[in-house]
């Protein structure tokens, strides 16, 4: 099996034309996702996470412009002919949204929603598709699957609909699953069950996954790597444990301090990040977090930081990164600065 990352995003820009100007929703983002790995994408509301997911899927609205590369198994989804892209979306890349209403058709029974993709993309018979649909519902924890197959979406609870949506996304055994705030509409207990289910199936299917959330607690423990977005740019990325245990970007650090659900002595007491995201139609030059950062100086805006390696499997775009305890003791130099 190839060791090349399953997804390589290179200098991705997604700009959206609006009456008040061009929103630079995603601005020069590069990242890799390895085969069989889960990547968490976190950041405040409005930081560009969903637009990035939509740009990767080729689901951007008409007036927006995307540039850069989105290499899925080596093929650039931004330039691939429409027919080939459609084949990849249905079969190899699937998406789970916050709201099952966006991907489940209210007037179509669960069985047809689950089997349509399999029959179209995998060419399986009606009987085989029925058997697979039963297995899938069982796998995602839907009780009495034979009965549920005959239901319409509105006859199921919110949690069950979300499970059916996950089963539908898994139906063609995709290589990559993109889950955008998949549990926001659900109560906390069901949220946890669905998130744990996603991580379990991601591992058991050997699938790659992008899990998007504004809540760091959701991606902690359920992803291998984490990328932190701020105002359309990546602030930091690395192994999830490292990003959470030793955040280096001032924004990541502040986000962790503002996240009460992560039980971490070092980050207590909880503090709010004052200020707000910059205007996305006219972002400041250099570091976009500078106006809210107590460590910022003139160099942060002129020309500002690039993503640099700051340790094994850890990158940060900050000119004044949080020091690790070893650096504080030895006065250690940062790699790449
Ligand atoms: N269809 C659209 N038209 C105009 N602007 C948009 C559109 N979709 C997103 N934006 C803008 O793009 C920027 C990034 O939005 P995006 O939805 O990606 O943020 P997010 O990090 O996913 O936030 P949330 O967690 O609230 O979904 C924001 O400034 C948003 O207002």
From TrEMBL:
Residues 7-256 form the ABC transporter domain. It is found in: Cell membrane. Pfam families: ABC_tran (PF00005), oligo_HPY (PF08352). The keyword ATP-binding applies. Its main location: membrane. GO terms for molecular function: ATP binding; ATP hydrolysis activity. It comes from the Bacteria. One of its GO terms (cellular component) is plasma membrane. It is a peripheral membrane protein. The keyword Cell membrane applies. One of its GO terms (biological process) is peptide transport. Keywords: ATP-binding, Cell membrane, Membrane, Nucleotide-binding, Transport. PROSITE patterns: ABC_TRANSPORTER_1, ABC_TRANSPORTER_2. Belongs to the ABC transporter superfamily. This is Dipeptide/oligopeptide/nickel ABC transporter ATP-binding protein. The lineage of its organism: Bacteria, Bacillati, Actinomycetota, Actinomycetes, Frankiales.
């Amino acid at each position: 099996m190839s060791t090349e990352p399953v997804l390589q995003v290179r200098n991705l820009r997604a700009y959206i034309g609006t009456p008040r100007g061009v929103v630079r929703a995603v601005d020069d983002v590069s990242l890799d996702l390895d085969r069989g790995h889960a990547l968490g994408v976190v950041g405040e509301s409005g930081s560009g996470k969903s637009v990035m997911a939509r740009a990767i899927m080729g689901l951007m609205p008409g007036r927006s412009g995307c540039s850069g590369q989105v290499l899925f198994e080596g093929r650039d989804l931004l330039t691939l002919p429409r027919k080939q892209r459609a084949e990849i979306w249905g079969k190899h890349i699937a998406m789970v949204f916050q709201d099952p209403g966006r991907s489940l058709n209210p007037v179509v029974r669960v069985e047809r929603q689950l089997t349509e993709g399999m029959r179209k993309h995998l060419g399986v018979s009606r009987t085989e598709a029925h058997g697979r649909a039963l297995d899938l519902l069982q796998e995602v924890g839907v009780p009495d699957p034979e009965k549920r197959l005959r239901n319409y979406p509105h006859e199921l609870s919110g949690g069950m609909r979300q499970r059916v949506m996950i089963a539908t996304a898994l139906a063609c055994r995709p290589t990559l699953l993109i889950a955008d705030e998949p549990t926001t509409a659900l109560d906390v207990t069901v949220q946890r069950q669905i998130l744990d289910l996603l991580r379990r199936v991601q591992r058991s299917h050997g699938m790659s996954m992008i899990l998007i959330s504004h809540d760091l607690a959701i991606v902690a423990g359920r992803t291998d790597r984490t990328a932190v977005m701020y105002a359309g740019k990546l602030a930091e990325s690395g192994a999830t444990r490292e990003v959470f245990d030793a955040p280096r970007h001032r924004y990541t650090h502040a986000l962790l301090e503002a996240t009460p659900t992560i039980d971490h002595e070092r980050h207590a007491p909880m503090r709010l990040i004052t200020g707000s995201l910059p205007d996305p139609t006219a972002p400041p030059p250099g570091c976009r977090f500078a106006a809210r950062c107590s460590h910022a100086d003139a160099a942060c805006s002129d020309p500002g930081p690039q993503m640099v390696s700051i340790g094994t499997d850890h990158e940060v775009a900050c000119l004044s990164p949080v020091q690790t305890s070893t650096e504080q003791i030895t006065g250690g130099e940062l790699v790449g600065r």
